[in-house]
Write a structure and sequence with these properties.
alpha/beta, single chain, NAD(P)-bd_dom_sf, Rossmann fold, 8 strands, 10 helices, oxidoreductase, 313 residues, globular
Length: 313
């Protein structure tokens, strides 16, 4: 995949792609790239207003973009279920699901269902959404893919199953690292469970964007009211970050490239894995802990109330 860019994406005519967090950052860039290749893109956004504004902006550069903006609040299980129901009513199948949306290093908050916000949005919301959409993914013709966005900061994450919701103590970066580690444990375990059942036309691939200049870095400082941290992020993004467009390349590769492999981890291959063209990479040993992956899976099904019925696929 040396030197791969979004320019090498194949035609996606006739395919349906779902992107969470599609109105900004990596999700926006991914949505535009998918639309440019002819896909019908469902923009799953927490804010319909911001989603529609983003869709209008994309149509300025991709005049025939087929975009469907729908509300999907990953911090609300009832809302996720309603989104999935609406999608299945409107579409015959889903070819690509990009579990992209996320929050990073924010003050402690809880989702509508009482989950710590970073774990709730970054992992549990996507776990529920993927479970609901499995039948639609299987209903698509040919191969379909689930792409889960993690982060290099998963390497600092630890699964604290005794205090998963950070109720006894909260550190915003520890919680973020745990949520990104959970993304990888989920992505790899999903691929194993698909393989065990001989489901070879549905792939689960993980990725990370490196250091990309997006709005994600600024939500934490903004919600903390820290002008110093805001200024620091602005400087770091200007000096170190690659563009959001380039940051989306690993996700786009994982979603569309013929050489992408289920159960693999894709990220930028340049300076300190922070920028450059995508390549297969090694994630942390903790992310490959199958016992933790099984435990997280069981806990996630219990917390979300979304069982994965593979036998019905």
């Amino acid at each position: 995949m040396s030197g791969w860019t979004a320019a090498e994406m194949p035609s996606l005519e006739g395919e349906t792609v779902v992107v969470t967090g599609a109105n900004s950052g990596l999700g926006f860039e991914g949505t535009e790239a998918f639309a440019r290749r002819g896909a019908s893109v469902v923009m799953a956004c927490r804010s319909l207003e911001r989603g529609r504004e983003a869709a209008a902006e994309i149509r300025q550069s991709v005049g025939d973009a087929d975009l469907d903006v729908r509300e999907c609040d990953l911090a609300d299980l009832e809302n996720i279920a309603a989104f999935a129901d609406g999608l299945e009513e409107a579409y015959d199948g889903v070819d690509i699901l990009c579990n992209n949306a996320g929050v990073m290093a924010i003050p402690r908050q809880e989702t509508a269902d009482g989950f710590e916000m970073q774990l709730g949005v970054n992992h549990l919301g996507h776990f529920a959404l993927t479970g609901y959409l499995l039948p639609a993914l299987r209903a698509s013709e040919g191969e379909s893919r689930i792409v889960t966005q993690s982060s290099g900061l998963h390497e600092q994450g630890e699964m604290d199953f005794d205090d998963l919701q950070s109720e006894r103590g909260y550190d915003k970066w520890d919680a973020y690292g745990q949520s990104k580690l959970a993304n990888l444990l989920f992505a790899y375990e999903l691929e194993r469970r698909l393989d065990e059942r001989g489901i070879s036309d549905l792939l689960s691939v993980a990725c990370h964007p490196g250091y990309a200049d997006t709005e994600l870095q600024f939500r934490g400082p903004r919600e903390s009211g820290s002008s110093l941290r805001m200024a620091g992020m602005q400087v770091a993004n200007a000096v170190l970050a690659q563009s959001a467009e380039q940051g989306a390349w690993p996700m786009l590769y994982a979603a569309t490239a013929d050489t992408a492999i289920g159960g693999e981890y894709v990220g930028p291959g340049g300076l300190m894995d922070m920028r450059g063209s995508p390549e297969f990479q090694q994630s942390s040993a903790a992310s490959r802990d199958e016992a933790d992956a099984e435990r997280l899976w069981d806990v996630s099904e219990e917390l979300t109330g979304v069982p994965y019925d593979f036998e019905a696929l």
